[in-house]
Amino acid sequence: MANPTENPPNREPKYELDIDEGELEEAEDEDDTASNPRTESLFRRMRSAPVPVRVHDVIVKGNEKTKDHIIEAEVEAVIREANTLQELLEASRVANSNLRALDIFDSVNITLDSGPPELPGTTNVAKSSSVEASLKYKNIFGYGDIWDGSMVYGLDSSAEVGLGMYLPRFKALPTPFSSRLYLSTQDWLKFSSYEERSLGLSLGLLSSKYHELVYTVAWRSLIDPSRLASESIRRQLGHSLLSALKYTFKYDQRDSYLRPTSGYAFSSTSQVGGLAPDSRSLRFFKQEIDLRCAVPLGFYAAALNFGVSGGVTFPWGSGYKNRASSVPERFFLGGNSSPVCSLSGPSALWGFSTRGLGPNEARRRGDVERDFVGGDAAVTAFADLSFDLPVRWLRERGVHGHVFACAGNTAKLTENEFRNFSGPKFLETFRTSVGAGIVLPVSLFRMEINYCHIVKKQEHDRAKSGFFLTFSA
Amino acid sequence: MEGDQDTSDFTLVTRKPCFGLPTACPNCLPAYIYLKLAQLPFQLAFNSTFPDSEELPYFESGTYVAYNNEDGGVIEKLEKDGIVNLDSQLQSLPDYLSLKALIVSWLEEALTYEIWVGTEGVCASKIYYSDLPWVIGKVLFYKQTYLTKNRLGLTKENAEQREKLIYKRASEAYEALSTRLGEQKFLFEDRPLSLDAFFLSHMLFTIQVLPETSVLRRKLLEHSNLVRYAERLKSEFLEESSSSPSPPLHSFPSSFSGKGSKPKSKPKAEKSEEEKKFKKRARFFLAAQFLAVVIYVSVMGGGSSDEVEYEDDD
């Protein structure tokens, strides 16, 4: 491990960064072996008290493609703030992480460190139950830019083709900037008798640990090739312009995403549509909130997870009380995902099929199925007790058991239905289910094999007691 | 239908009203007039965000729906399903079939040409795309114009010949229909038929929507008995719920007749106010974008200009 030379108070060290074929190294002192007496003395000093040091210069050399200011922006700020050797070591570690996170270098090494933490590069978080193929081109223009083309096919009959661009530094923006041009189709014919097609551009304006701000403009079309849609879906068919800003605040302090045993998480997503000079664009407001809590119980690695999610959507603009909300913005409950993992508003409910509960209407004569048209307000809640299984082989692989209970409901508020809304009636029509199962954490997602028993459902709900397989990512 | 539905449950969904017509879409108007001729009470609902839908107009009653792209059209489907049938026992008569062919082929082709090519789509924009956001409306308009020209077989080489042929056929059709009608009340026998619905729709659209400079409109107005026929049926069947009598058809000003046109009603004045407001907002948005670009260029270009000054001082 290399150390910077021990500095008398009046001398200042030079700090060099070498970029060679994508490698980042610090300048090494020639006498840097651990057995060097001066090195041992330095270590003793570092252990006893902070060792003052001041960074004089940061020199970047060897980079042929990547612009200097891209590298300096990730490194200089943290390095220059270090006032002691201990802080310098810490700053080197942070700089290392920052440069690796750009994902444009083959390898990043800082020889001063005692084994730099290996951070993963940019990861693609795949949607649950989908297959994705993507191509990435990195650093084409030397700005740390990452371009990717992708095709995603979801098992929920959705498909998307997209072209994305990621910039770690974009002018004065404090966080990375990303954009995505996409063409997507979503087939809801089986559940709601419509297909949704979108051609849009999504801009990630702000992306940090807790905050995310995304602007999306899209041409959206709802069609019904089956010609079986119910009345309210028929009225929604056609073209619309979506111009919306979405802000997400996410604070997840749980110890694990796939099997949380302690901590809590809170998420709030606010979306405003109609941000365009054209008053004919889709005007709506949507708010979702998620709260999760995990409490360890101290035996068999058991933990109690509970959570609540809620959301509301409403159109705005002239005549908003009489106008129906847009179907894709509404809340649909049910599906094959677990509410323990997801922080994406009220949606998952064990035992109920995809879009299997809530307001529904009869389809065109000749089809006995009904269309689930979604609700403008929705609430879900769950409690889940997870525990290790007594078989060691299963324990070692993270396979554990759980028992759970969940409840949820959704209601229509628009077209003056909010006048007929009543809390007691909403509570009275809550759907509930209980069950137990086994959870298999598989790499990046969580698979559950559950037996669910439907305790309470309403007429026409698509739910039945039995065994279910759920996936969550 | 089995006759077990409440008759107040009938709804015809069409494209929106415009130019003084209950629905300005030439594909939807025949269905509206047909139901009026049949004196079937129904409600009207509108869909103004789906200009390229082949299903409009559609008729619904409870869970029963008759789409326009099934069984030859919504009128044919209603007749087949027994909801209403003005043409009973007439469908196989040669005279009837030849008149119907004349109206739904030559006249329909002429009207399509006039809407999308002859008048350069000015009224089409207002009928189909005025309720859609500007970008979407423009793209769909150009797409539909291209498809229509393909359907009519128009190319740069044959445009003039095709136009002459289309207008010639329209003239011959008007002549034949005028001769057939004489001074009768209806086109065939002494009762309203689907022929009357189709032809009245064609006439009302041509006279009220197309501009005064339209060649097709001029050719139609040469036949005064046809104009009287349209006025008669319009006042008897289409405006029976209206308290004030409608002015004569040929004196209706068209919104796109050129310099002499005046806005004829308050809704039009409100529409132009809305358009002005939208244009003002769009101009403000574009100005803000332009200003942002100018500021950015000034700020980013400020460093290099300073360097130049420094060198000059040296």
From TrEMBL, chain A:
Start and end residues of each Bacterial surface antigen (D15) domain: 139-467
Pfam families: Omp85, POTRA
Region ranges (Disordered): 1-41
InterPro entries: Bac_surfAg_D15, BamA/TamA_POTRA, D15-like
Limits of the POTRA domain: 53-114
PANTHER family: SORTING AND ASSEMBLY MACHINERY COMPONENT 50 HOMOLOG, SORTING AND ASSEMBLY MACHINERY SAMM50 PROTEIN FAMILY MEMBER
Protein name: Bacterial surface antigen (D15) domain-containing protein
From TrEMBL, chain B:
Occurrences of domain Metaxin glutathione S-transferase (ranges): 170-233
InterPro entries for this protein: Metaxin1/3 (IPR017410), Metaxin_GST (IPR033468), Mito_Protein_Transport_Metaxin (IPR050931), Thioredoxin-like_fold (IPR012336)
Localization per record: Mitochondrion outer membrane
Bias (Low complexity): 251-260
Ranges annotated as spanning the membrane: 284-304
Region (Disordered): 240-275
Keyword Transmembrane helix: yes
Protein keywords: Membrane, Mitochondrion, Mitochondrion outer membrane, Transmembrane, Transmembrane helix
UniProt superkingdom: Eukaryota
Domain (Thioredoxin-like fold): residue spans on this chain: 26-120
CDD domains the record matches: GST_C_Metaxin
Function description: Involved in transport of proteins into the mitochondrion.
Family assignment from sequence similarity: Belongs to the metaxin family.
Name recorded for this polypeptide: Metaxin
